[in-house]
Design brief:
By secondary structure, this protein is of the alpha+beta class. It folds into three domains: 1-30; 32-198, Immunoglobulins (Immunoglobulin-like), CATH 2.60.40; 202-229. The protein has four helices and 13 strands.
Length: 229
């Protein structure tokens, strides 16, 4: 009876974990959106393509402390064709965005931040400063990127702080630089937002500790069961 109950528990537990993991992946996955060609972009926007390109508004990115004490957080960019009233007419294909993190405190160095694309190529903007800033792309539609920072990002005793600002600037759209054909200048549509780092709350640490103890206890139980056979 105990064995059957444990089997049912194991089955339900696995299903719950798999279901939760699927929901988590779904929650962070970029939403799919229809793309628009450069010709249709110019036609529907009523202006030249270079002036119709926009970048979705920046958001506050929170870097959460990880098990190894480093900090990590995720942001998202979307390059799209905009109508005169700001309506998103469709996502731009083969876009490239420059992403940079600017520290907000003299004790924090820009080299402490590393930006990487989630499934999208990234290249160093300047070989002398690898990881920040970077050029991310080509991409089409909402695309995630990850910011990573070392364990010493926050001083001892500080639970949370504004550590900088992130900036995104479009450098390519439809695989081409954004050169305005009427003025000859290169346009630089962009956005920005805050970067906040924080350590786990006490209740989260307690939950993690109880979970770890539960795993250890289960492992010991399995070991004793095998030895008793």
């Amino acid at each position: 009876m105990f064995r059957n109950s444990r089997s049912r528990f194991r089955s339900v537990g696995v299903s719950t974990i798999v279901g939760a993991a699927a929901l988590a992946v779904f929650a962070v996955a970029p939403a799919s959106a229809a793309t628009i060609s450069s010709i249709d972009c110019a036609s529907q926007a009523g202006t030249v393509v270079a002036r119709a390109i926009r970048l979705a508004s920046g958001q506050t990115i929170v870097l959460q402390q990880q098990i190894d004490y480093s900090y990590q957080g995720t942001g998202q960019v979307e390059v799209y064709c905009s109508a005169a009233n700001g309506t998103n007419l469709g996502d731009v294909t083969d876009a490239q965005v420059k992403i940079s993190i600017s520290p907000s405190d003299p004790s924090i160095n820009a080299s402490m931040f590393t930006v990487s694309g989630d499934g999208v190529p990234t290249a160093n903007f300047n070989p002398a400063t690898p990881g920040n800033p970077v050029l991310m792309g080509p991409m089409s539609g909402p695309t995630n990127f990850t910011i990573t920072a070392p364990a010493n990002l926050l001083p001892a005793g500080v639970a949370a702080a504004d550590v900088g600002a992130h900036f995104e600037v479009v450098s390519l759209a439809y695989g081409q630089p954004l050169t305005d054909p009427k003025t000859g200048i290169t346009l630089k549509p962009g956005t920005f937002g805050d970067v906040i780092a924080q350590t786990p709350e006490l209740d989260s640490l307690a939950l993690f500790g109880s979970g770890a103890l539960g795993i250890v206890g289960y492992a010991l139980l399995r070991r004793r069961a095998r030895q008793g056979k």
